[in-house]
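Summary for the steering committee. One of the milestones for this cycle was to obtain a three-dimensional model of the protein with pyridoxal-5'-phosphate bound, which we needed before selecting residues for the alanine scan. The sequence and ligand used are listed below.
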Amino acid sequence: METRTSVHIETVSVHAGREPDAATAALSPPIHLSTTFAREADGGYPRGFSYTRAGNPNRHALETCLAALEGGAEAMVFSSGTAAAMTVLQALNPGDHVICTQDAYHGVLRLLREVMAPWQLGTSFVDASNPDEVRAAITPATRLIWVETPSNPLLKITDLAAIAAIAREAKVLTVCDNTFATPVLQKPFDFGMDFVMHSTTKYLGGHSDVLGGAIIARQKNALSERVRFLQASGGAVPSPFDCWLLLRGAATLPLRVRAQTANALAIARHLAAHQAVANVLYPGLESHRGHALARRQMQGFGAMLSFTLQGGEAAALHAAARVKLFTRATSLGGVESLIEHRASMEGPDTRTPRNLLRVSVGVEHADDLIADLDQALA
Ligand SMILES: *Cc1c(COP(=O)(O)O)cnc(C)c1O
């Protein structure tokens, strides 16, 4: 609990990283396009900015906001969630070993298999929703445990406190991909995780118009310093305008996520009673295997859900083809509701059931969303 601040997240989202501009008193922060910053006569940079790959006022404001939202010591933002993940993996050394949950975001799995394995980073893929599998996979070379909860697209729940305890005992660092839950619903640092990762493309941005990623560190340590070094040296940084959009999105994060979560619960309950539906994967349903854990660990169950259809893949594709209000599209976390046949998006090596549709619930009225799904499933 050491990282929890007494100020509420609604207030942090509006105020962290935002002050009227020192030069003009403008409330909306100016976008600093300059790639370079003037040096003082003594050669110094008293304001801390020298060249925009190393640092930029808009990026600094966003990092301040994200660190405050998660309750971490510092945040480092990147040009995409995948670039953020890549940078953490590159901060390790060849010969190191990573334990990764097997239903992590498919792009992270691809990085481990196709980019980092040839670079001699070893990986064990486990079901992290079973902490015993994580414990059993630890080797003397293990440096990092990577979990994602709720997971994509099966919405499995991983016990963050249990994973953190295993990691502490083994002197291994931990990362939680908190993209689905957002800090509004889940604070991984409160359970002892070391790093939080976000695809800010999703809920943080919230409007499907900006790509970004972030790594937030609970405390500064050797790995966070290496990530900071690689951010500037590798250069996978977001533009000043991207940072401005993300800071703007963050201000309404709690409002959006709460509205989306309420809609998702209504939709999940409705689908669970629908005769065309085989199974609804949503941690807010009592029938979900991770429900009790999610109740303890989260402040709400999120706005992502998946469901499988009785009629198999053909029925899933048919329903996805018939939606009118939902948009058939990948990605998630925006104000508009999306539906996706996940297996065909993930490609031939997917483990996702072929009769599964994944839904990102937006801020429209729940009744309208339910009516759309009903007519598509009829
Ligand atoms: C989208 C996503 C990512 C990858 O982020 P990009 O911004 O698309 O690179 C990683 N993890 C999760 C859970 C995601 O949804």
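Key point for the committee: The two ends are 48 Å apart (CA to CA).
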